[in-house]
Amino acid sequence: MTSRPPAVLHAGTGPALELLTVPQVMARLQLGRSAVYDLLRSGQLASITLGRARRIPTHALTDFIRTRLEQEAA
């Protein structure tokens, strides 16, 4: 099964906002579904809900990784 490309929203002339699915975040972080949903539930990883679908903006994933790296370095 191949995954569909992520949705891209354009806000006027600003940069495109890429949205990732939970399976895409699972693959990027190499975590299981439960671990990703735990991060979403705890607010450590921001997301939006579109109907019943959960989407994670790429900047939210980048911010999460950056924050974790800073915590590890401290």
From TrEMBL:
Return the Pfam families for the record. HTH_17 (PF12728)
**Which InterPro entries does this chain map to?**
HTH_17, SinI_DNA-bd
Which part of the chain is the Helix-turn-helix domain? 19-68
Q: Which domain of life is it from?
A: Bacteria
NCBIfam families noted in UniProt: excise
Instruction: Name the chain's protein.
Output: Helix-turn-helix domain-containing protein
